[in-house]
Amino acid sequence: MAEVLVLAEHADGDVKKVTVELLTLARSLGEPAAVAVGDVSDELVAALGAAGADTVYVAAGSEFSDHVVAPTVSALQAAIEASHPAAVLVPSTADGKETAGRLAIRTGSGVITDAVGVAEGFVAEQSVFGGSTLVHSKVTTGTPIIAVRPNSVAADASAGAGKRVDLTVTLSDTDKSAKVTERVAEEKAGRPELTEAAIVVSGGRGVGGPEGFGVVEALADELGAAVGASRAATDAGWYPHQFQVGQTGKTVSPQLYMANGISGAIQHRAGMQTSKTIVAVNKDPEAPIFDLVDFGVVGDLHTVLPQLTEEVKRRKA
Amino acid sequence: MKIVVCVKQVPDSWAEKKLDPTDNTLDRDAVDAVVNELDEFAIEEALQIQERLGADNCTVTVLSVGPEKAIESVRKGLQMGADDGVHVVDDAMHGSDALATSSVLAGAIDRLQPDLVLMGSESTDARMSVVPAMVAERTGRPQLTFAGKVDLDGDTVRVQRMTDYGYDVVEATLPALVSVVEKINEPRYPSFKGIMAAKKKPVETLALSDLGIDPATVGLGGSWSAVEDFAARPPRTAGTIVTDEGDGGVKLAEFLSAQKFI
Ligand SMILES: Cc1cc2nc3c(=O)[nH]c(=O)nc-3n(C[C@H](O)[C@H](O)[C@H](O)COP(=O)(O)OP(=O)(O)OC[C@H]3O[C@@H](n4cnc5c(N)ncnc54)[C@H](O)[C@@H]3O)c2cc1C
Ligand SMILES: Nc1ncnc2c1ncn2[C@@H]1O[C@H](COP(=O)(O)O)[C@@H](O)[C@H]1O
Asked: What residue owns the CA closest to ligand 2's atom 6?
């Protein structure tokens, strides 16, 4: 059986959840193999094996992570030459999609992004137009390169052989032309990443101001959730831009999405409509967000959310 | 300094979108067309760079690839203040995907030879966010995408590349390619003077043959992936809505508990 390559996402030596999801998906389509690029330790290789990879292709070195996207493309290209895989799966994140796009050009292959599933024969399912339409597509030329959204597949780690294969990759000057000189972390520590989180608690204009996000954050922390925001909230400077959910922000597809003080404009819906369960708190019974919800509370979020947070605390105790 | 800004004409995002059942492409006639919102931020950034460098030292060209009416998007850029425009239009391009679009854009950019290419980081219709990276790949330019801030210092360009955790500072030497996110600036509205002046600004129309691109490699036929089928997703079943009577939080907790979230 041919290999299905998975571009591993990792941070500080840990395998990200989306990588376990993609290895799970790869196992249903062929022989799962991971490609680890950048700061790759023996522990990381072992962790990828434990997450399901039979083979771990490694392109180690800081020159891969210190330059934007292109070096990762070269590493994947080398992995394709070594493995002759049936397909390549990458996470459908900003970097993952760019990597997929460039790899498609280098290898003369078709590419599909934002897949929410991949079935036998590498038929990719995409949810388009804010979730209103499901599309099935197939790559018709070259090695299928498919970017799959986090949270699309239930992660099921089942240990693989984890055999390490070091790749020989020579980076060109062009690969190294966009250099990362500094990394600045703004995210408040301790919360799961927005696009990966199983639960996202969001706030909009209805929270009333930057302090208003306090009740949203308190609830998120009690649920172990990520915090999101509508554009009205990020534009007003109440919450950092990178937490914006929607058409021009992040697309999230968690198990549970909670919209608080968010009206449910079409551009917001475009970023959260494929969430499995949706709940909303809004004081306007006519708010369009209620058309989407599994459960909604018409009320003031400043009283409903603290009460919910207390209740969650009580039930957990 | 020569700047080219890539602008795409897209269906108005407020309008409901549909796929054309005859060939599975976006039914563009069914909706109003506007300039992709993020591309206005790219135009604005180019104009601000021009203002800093002085109009004698910097030109701004708007480039759009698309059907006849995409010329409206080029005009919008000229009205905002760009100097001239290039419109690549060819019937063979109908149904082009990101790979094909990027090859046409790259062909036009290689012909124009700008120092800096500015793009939006995402189009509201395709929403793939891959065209800028693809154009960087094809033109061999450094890829400075998702920029929330752009600084030019001689022939060095430095951007803040937005990430999930904050931003990376990324540096490159011109010629380069930058795509912008919306926090970068506040696009201007065309002034009456700008609208009048735009009527006299030159727009060059190019066909694929001018760029040496084989029509068979673009459009629906040139695509390396194909839509097999599509279907409307079944509508969500109506949820339960309760009105808070002092117990809204508790009721919500009961729902979350029943769904095993707590
Ligand atoms: C091209 C384009 C792209 C866009 N991209 C995005 C995007 O990516 N993401 C995005 O979110 N938006 C986006 N927008 C903006 C979008 O159209 C809406 O303007 C925005 O989503 C509104 O945010 P909101 O729901 O927080 O604010 P509003 O629409 O003002 O809604 C606030 C809601 O809060 C409720 N409320 C007020 N006070 C309380 C209270 N005390 N308790 C409970 N409820 C309360 C109100 O009833 C109301 O429903 C985009 C727009 C355009 C044109
Ligand atoms: N047909 C086009 N003509 C000009 N620019 C385009 C075109 N398609 C995409 N772009 C540019 O690529 C960016 C990202 O688009 P996309 O990858 O489709 O989300 C846009 O913001 C534009 O700057």
From this structure: B8
C-alpha to C-alpha distance for A51 and B213, rounded to whole angstroms: 45
Minimal-distance CA residue of chain B relative to A307: B249
The CA B138 to ligand 1 mean position distance, Å, reads 38
Give, to the nearest 10 degrees, the angle between helix B98-112 and helix B131-139.
Answer: 50
User: Both ends of chain B: CA-CA distance in Å?
Assistant: 58
**Which helix (H) or strand (E) segment is A203 a member of?**
strand A199-203
Question: Which pair of structure tokens corresponds to residue A246?
Answer: 């929607």
Residues B98 and B147: their CA atoms lie apart, in Å, by 20
Helices (H) and strands (E) in chain B, counts: 7, 15
- State pTM to two decimals: 0.88
User: Nearest Cα to B126, choosing from A300, A114, A301?
Assistant: A114
For residue range B98-112, what is the model confidence (pLDDT) as tens digits? 999 999 999 999 999
Burial A6-15 (b: 16+ CB within 10 A, else e): bbbbbeeeeb
Distance from CA of A84 to the nearest CA of B (A): 19
In 10 A of CB A282, how many CB atoms?
27
Write the CB contacts of B123 (distance below 8 Å, at least 6 apart in sequence): B8, B10, B36, B38, B39, B131
Q: What is the pLDDT of residues B47-80, one digit of tens each?
A: 999 999 999 999 999 999 999 999 999 999 999 9
Q: What b/e sequence results for A140-169 when a residue is b if at least 16 CB atoms lie within 10 Å of its CB, and e otherwise?
A: ebbbbbbbbbbbbbebeeeebebebeebeb
Neighbour count for residue A139 (Cβ, 10 Å): 22
